[in-house]
Amino acid sequence: MKLGDVIQSADWKAEKHVPVINAPDSVKAGEKVTVEVCVGKEIEHPNTTEHHIRWIKLYFKSENSKFVTEVGTYQFDAHGESTEGPNKGSAYSEPWAKAVLKLNTAGTLIAVAYCNIHGLWESSRRITVE
Ligand code: FE
């Protein structure tokens, strides 16, 4: 078995676990570009002590390279935990993050999200560089 065998994918408009990557289709080489990654843009994912998104990782695969580069890890650590019991806490971190990148070659952004109950989900987005 390979890790890829258990990473699921689907259309993010229909499946709430799929990470959404918001980025321009095209950027200028070496210029700062803001990339937003999130889970639940169209259909909200639960955010409870028992069921939540723990993290999203973002990768970049240059079209000139065989290897992928890890760009960032975004951890979501608060899900209503409290001394009063589950879901009584005062803070919840939403699965939403912003990365600022500089790219020198075209390639593909790949996001992987982890739900503590439903495992790993991925999506990708092609980005060209002028
Ligand atoms: Fe889930």
From TrEMBL:
Class in the EC hierarchy, top level: oxidoreductase
EC number(s) stated in the UniProt entry for this protein: 1.15.1.2
Entry keyword set: Electron transport, Iron, Metal-binding, Oxidoreductase, Transport
InterPro entries: Desulfoferrodoxin_Fe-bd_dom (IPR002742), Desulfoferrodoxin_Fe-bd_dom_sf (IPR036073), Desulfoferrodoxin_SOR (IPR051233)
Record-linked SUPFAM superfamilies: Superoxide reductase-like (SSF49367)
Domain called Desulfoferrodoxin ferrous iron-binding: residue spans: 10-123
GO molecular function, one term: superoxide reductase activity
Family assignment from sequence similarity: Belongs to the desulfoferrodoxin family.
Name this protein carries in UniProt: Putative superoxide reductase
Organism, scientific name: bioreactor metagenome
Higher taxonomy: unclassified sequences, metagenomes, ecological metagenomes
